[in-house]
Amino acid sequence: MSTIDVLNDESYMRLALDMASKAQGQTEINPVVGCVIVREGRIVGLGAHLRRGEGHAEVHALRMAGEQAEGATAYVTLEPCSHHGRTPPCCERLIEAKVARVVVACTDPNPQVAGRGLSRLREAGIAVEVGLLEEESLRMNEMFNKFIVTRMPFVTMKSAMTLDGKLAAKSGDSRYVSGPRAREMTHTLRHRHMGIMVGAETAIVDDPELSTRLSVPAVHPVRIVVDAKLRLPPEARMLREMIAPVIVLTVAGADPGKRAALKAAGAEVIDCGDGDRVDLALAMRKLGEREIGSILLEGGGKLNGAMLELGLIDKLLLFVAPKVIGGAGAPGVFQFEGFEKMAQAIPFRDVQVERIGADIFVSGYPEYG
Ligand code: AOF
Ligand code: ZN
């Protein structure tokens, strides 16, 4: 931002987006939404949706504005809702408050809303404008946008690899591949996702807690382990530290004794198919049914490869550490059958590159053919 933040529609919408962005990770499957109400050159109300089941952004902002909402402009990062969900429709609240103008960043993809909120406001004679900072708002809610339409969790794969594509040394040692700033970002990502998923191999070798550790308190995701053979020991650290639920994804034929032991240790064990391997597409559907709307996938290489091969990864975040570890047996970041021809490679779109401390940070969205 420059020294003088010129006041205009965009600057008020940016304030609403900033408020929304800080609530990422605390609204479960709900979107993050911010609202700013301005009348005659003064901000008279501010609000953000902070928790599922509680007030929407507009409701908080309108309550603060009180009678000053009459004739005011409301800036909202998402189309005001038109449905009776856990809370009554926001568009009716805006109409009752006699707001004159509503500026919206993007429409709500929720099939129960999808434009109805906007038409309701227009019918009531309110001036409605849509599309201001739309890209930012869409990106901020990319996980909600997928889940609300497909009921499948949005999967962000995050990994750290060496320049030669390795997750660890041949001994299995992986502390640490990337630098401290990259690791802080990882913990912020854990806060922002409802689940964190690893393979049994990683869970056994690293014995991770899979918690969110930041300099401020943060939300811990549900810990999910893909474990067809139920190799996760009941005394694993994540089961000893019950800071959040543990879900073990397995198959119908898994050993009943091990199943009972994991359950006794506090894990929820979910069957995903009756083959030798966990049916990952079915697993995603079952997690979606449990309203786990977003998952941070933190590998290993086999799970990353399998998820990519099945088209189940929505977004990739990769820290590339400027070092080479070598070793034919050292695990690679994506392990799967692979393709014969370079032309068959899975391309990524909207790729961005940044330096994070000493590391190179690459993000992008896989495009499945
Ligand atoms: C808004 N403002 O601040 C939010 C909206 O279960 P409910 O009642 O909270 O409804 C959730 C749905 O409402 C959610 O799927 C999305 O369509 C919309 N979220 N709408 O006008 C808000 N959080
Ligand atoms: Zn609403």
From TrEMBL:
Binds 1 zinc ion. Its EC number is 3.5.4.26, 1.1.1.193. Its cofactor is Zn(2+). Gene3D superfamilies: Cytidine Deaminase, domain 2 (3.40.140.10), Dihydrofolate Reductase, subunit A (3.40.430.10). Pfam families: dCMP_cyt_deam_1, RibD_C. It catalyses: 2,5-diamino-6-hydroxy-4-(5-phosphoribosylamino)-pyrimidine + H2O + H(+) = 5-amino-6-(5-phospho-D-ribosylamino)uracil + NH4(+); 5-amino-6-(5-phospho-D-ribitylamino)uracil + NADP(+) = 5-amino-6-(5-phospho-D-ribosylamino)uracil + NADPH + H(+). Keywords: Hydrolase, Metal-binding, Multifunctional enzyme, NADP, Oxidoreductase, Riboflavin biosynthesis, Zinc. GO terms for molecular function: 5-amino-6-(5-phosphoribosylamino)uracil reductase activity; diaminohydroxyphosphoribosylaminopyrimidine deaminase activity. Pathway: Cofactor biosynthesis; riboflavin biosynthesis; 5-amino-6-(D-ribitylamino)uracil from GTP: step 2/4; Cofactor biosynthesis; riboflavin biosynthesis; 5-amino-6-(D-ribitylamino)uracil from GTP: step 3/4. Residues 7-129 form the CMP/dCMP-type deaminase domain. Converts 2,5-diamino-6-(ribosylamino)-4(3h)-pyrimidinone 5'-phosphate into 5-amino-6-(ribosylamino)-2,4(1h,3h)-pyrimidinedione 5'-phosphate. In the N-terminal section; belongs to the cytidine and deoxycytidylate deaminase family. This is Riboflavin biosynthesis protein RibD. It comes from Paenibacillus artemisiicola. The lineage of its organism: Bacteria, Bacillati, Bacillota, Bacilli, Bacillales. The gene is ribD.
